[in-house]
Amino acid sequence: xxxxxxxxxxxxVPALLVVAVGVAASLASRSNEIHFLNALVAVAMVxxxxxxxxNSGVLSFGQISFVAVGAFAAGVLTVPSALKGxxxxxxxxxxxxxxxxxxxxxxxxxAVGGIFAFxxxxxxxxxxxxxxxxxxxxxxxxxxxLLREWTKIGPGATTLSLVPETTGPLQATVGxxxxxxxxxVYGRSRLGRMLxxxxxxxAAAQAAGIDVHRQRLWAFTLSGALAGFAGGLLVHMLGxxxxxxxxxxxxxxxxxxxxVGGVTSLWGAVVGALAVSGLDSFLGKAEQGxxxxxxxxxxxxxxLVVVGALMALVLILRPSGITGGRELRLPRRxxx
Amino acid sequence: xxxxxxxxVDAQTLVDAVGLGAVFALMAxxxxxxxxxxxxxxxxxxxxxxxxxxxxxxxSGWPVGARLLMCLGxxxxxxxxxxxxxxxxxxSASPAVMLVTTFAIAFLLQxxxxxxxxRDGTIGEAAASVGGLRQAVTIAGVDVRKVTLVAIAxxxxxxxxxxxxxxxxxxxxxxxxxxxxxxxxxxxGVRANVVxxxxxxxxxxxxxxxxxxxxxxxxxVTPGFALxxxxxxxxxxxxxxxxxxxxxxxxxxAIGFATGVINGALPTEHTVFLPSAVFALVVLVLIxxxxxxxxxxxxxxxxxx
Amino acid sequence: MTRPLLELDGLEVRHxxxxxxxxxxxxxxxxxxxxxxxxxxxxxxxxxxAIMGLLPPAAGEIRLRGEPLRxxxxxxxxxxxxALVPEGRRIFGGFxxxxxxxxxxxxxxxxxxxxxxxxxxxxxPMLADFRRRQAGALSGGxxxxxxxxxxxxxxxxxxLLDEPSLGLAPGLVDVVFEALATIRERRVTVLxxxxxxxRTVAFADRTYVLANGRLHSTLTRADSAxxxxxxxxxxA
Lengths: 336, 305, 236
Known about the structure:
Helix content of chain C: 25-40%
Oligomer: heterotrimer
Strand content of chain C: 25-35%
Shape of chain C: globular
Structural class of chain B: mainly alpha
Strand content of chain B: under 5%
Helix content of chain B: 55-70%
Number of helices of chain C: 9
Number of strands of chain B: 4
Distance between the termini of chain B: 53 Å
Shape of chain B: globular
């Protein structure tokens, strides 16, 4: 019975946290709203990364590629058709002549992310350790290069703007809840449990009949779809996107969020994303001067220093992260 | 295919490519040495070069000898601090954790550099050339920058000395043994801390040398200095085979040389997709040979016992 | 009665939660050859690894000439005069025979590299013939000789051997025990871990029988002819 309650709590508590942030976003002033929305989209991205990295134990530097393709797909296809021809002249006709709605763009983003992940994952999933890290890094580089130079599919090196800003508090909250639910259901499913078995002991899992390659591919594809979806949320929140925004720095920050929270748990992903986002926002304000009883004014660029230092410290001192890599447990009543 | 795509590989391009390969080979050794004894991929290696470059930039008015000494000093202090604070606590961690941690350190150092650099409001510091090496000489009809020749010579000498040290001295023997089988080496009395410190020290010296060469070639130092090169070298090292020092060095040289040739031979319009092509090749190699191109068979990187 | 060279006192070593060695107390005196036998998984290798500092003891003491060894790094233990010939030999296949031997000098106290080499080549003439060969090209028996020779290079006070006859054909096992006999003549103290119970009991001055991580019994050379005792040891 406690197990059932535990798993209920493991979904409910993060969900409630997300809703709380969403409510805060809707109540906040215009200038502060962006911080809360940022935090929510970060949760979506980090949970997407966790679905693969956390469950499989395989390091991937490439998940942001899927955020990127999702963001650009959703973005390019929602720029109002009247303007698209002049703003993005080089596009393929099929992209230039069609415009889709908000929700459709999000679903498309997820689809594009998932398909891309599946294609990339098929050859890559047999790698692990160092080779996987480098190979997925290569995927990130390829994606970045293609998006930046191929003006037939997007704006290339220029900013993609005029994207409808449809990710307000409601869309962000609902979107993140969807991601959370999918990640949760996958994690508790048989597929998720099989993958975690390969994380602990690949040889034993294989001997037990688990197809390591297939399980990793499932998770990688799902992670790609969720990441793509998060990319859609992202581009609709910012109203614009550039290739540099979904490249190395975002890879670093989202990995930092996952590590700080705790790589191997969904709870860790949520906690890490919210905690580091909060810290990041606070420091962002401090860079402009913020009042905390006295005026705190730190030089520009401090946020990355602190986030980087935090990530390094956690990895050295407490590699399992804030949550210890474990899911939530309800406090047990002591035996009488 | 248009005539423009036909490779115009002239002697000029070849010399420059060899020069680039030489620099990348030095970096590859720096990365390979530390990997050999620690099984740790130092993602932050480029930041060590960056630190050396910034030192050279900030001492632009000083006499040459003092500048070189300062550069070496700063890089070595930073390298040994990294060893103490980051590498040592992580000695028993998995390669993936070590990779992510050095990744974090790389970003951390880059962010710190950005703060330091921005104090005068602009990004980038200019480093004065060392000994007028930016000028070109004409050898056999080919225009070669002096620094390219120096790079090739320095690389050849450094690598030669290193190879000699490793093959002939007792310390070199201990280092090779530690890289091959760390635990057994310790059982025989090889001092782990000494071997590791020396490997890290050497990689720092190499980073300083690379910093000098690169600032002569590209005098503007930014926080992202050498980041691109580090990524390329890292890729070259893993593709060559990070497990052994000579395959790692060969991989570094090869990717540097190849980059130099392709960049020099193809006009710019055609090189925009070059990174994609290179990285796609990297993925292909890793799929079929996770241990590296020059490594035997399909073995993945050996974990340290 | 002089102080033992090596003393284990209530040694306990764990692999995770499981205790591989429990309450192990034994002593090895200078100049002795002591055997340590027992079935697979009895904790014999674990004991040697704990002495060398590769595994931290959960409880108990390890003393070399009365000085505690616990907590020292493997290289420090080696430099204190203990040499291990590891299971599976673990020679450096990519290095030459002579380089492998020179590596053994890392723990040596005092100078005299060339004397040590001459000495060892005298003990194992076959190695002298192969000094420039790649160690990986040697046969199993030759590699075992190399591993023992390498351990002797540091002139250790205590030599630990972890199953030196493992995987060797019977003829080669003879070679190994002959080498051990030569070592005995030089008054090097030996702790020999082996699966071949009879040979070990017949060879050693004293043999401890380990089972399930605990000391089961002690046998003397005379017991090697006593069938009942040997069977009891096998079935421990």
